[in-house]
Here is the input.
Amino acid sequence: MNNPDGDIFELLKSNVDKGFRIVVERYSSKLYWHIRRIVILHEDADDALQNTFINAWRNIDNFRNESSIYTWLYAIATNESLAIINKRKKNAAVPIDDLGSYFANSQEGSTWFDGDEAQIKLQNAILRLPEKQRIVFNLKYFNDMTYEEMSKILDTSVGALKASYHYAVKKIENIISNG
Amino acid sequence: MMMKQIIEISDKNPFKVPENYFEEVNRKIISSTSGYRSEKKNIGLYRKLRPYLAIAASVAILAVLSYMAIHNFSSRDDKPVLPEITLNEFSDHYLNDIDNLTLEENTGTVAPVFAHSDLNSSEIIDYLVFENIDINEIYERL
Here is the structure.
């Protein structure tokens, strides 16, 4: 199986600073959007993205070329996103399970959300999924990731992921159709 | 189909980022991680040596404590403990008492009647002391 990050892995061994710079430039945007769809708010996504790369840097010596850097980074990013959500649940006065209400009531200075009513409706439907199911849906639908790659990121079997995605789609359709 | 509707809605990304956000965040990440690595190397060396330094410190402390204990408990000088007395008490008690050695040193003045005897002065003095003759009186008569 071809490792798309084979060149980076070799560079990380010979020149870790240069190799890591390429990792950041190659994956920061993809990771950001993956995180953003989980945490919704730009400020939280910014924090999680930086934490992701700092964690990756600290553990770069432990990284073995058993999985790709891509899936390794996504696993770290997912954990950072979930950590932020859990922290927010404890601290936030207004929960983010309804974007419209949240943006209306939130004290956040900038939401960086520019969607119309239909998009708010879709995002709300996705937000109503359980966290892990939401992540599965996002990775499959928005990132077009294979179930095998998702299995490595989420440490879940391919079969369970397929079932999870199937039910996620059904739920979203149901929510949207029922208004 | 509902999924088609979802696809149409999701074609547009409603989430926005500040202008030049990715250039800025990349630069921030690279600058923060490059400095951390040299600190981690230094700390790593210290962390590797820390257990050995702890052992060395423990051994050193034990050695010092052992030396102090041995020094304090075994270096008792066997010096005789002299009673504390005043100078007058000393002169009254000791200087007026003539000891045997002083007598022996002065038996050169003993009467010549003993000069040719087989007894030496030590034996003569011992005899006199045994006969309860005061030792000071013996000395005065010498």
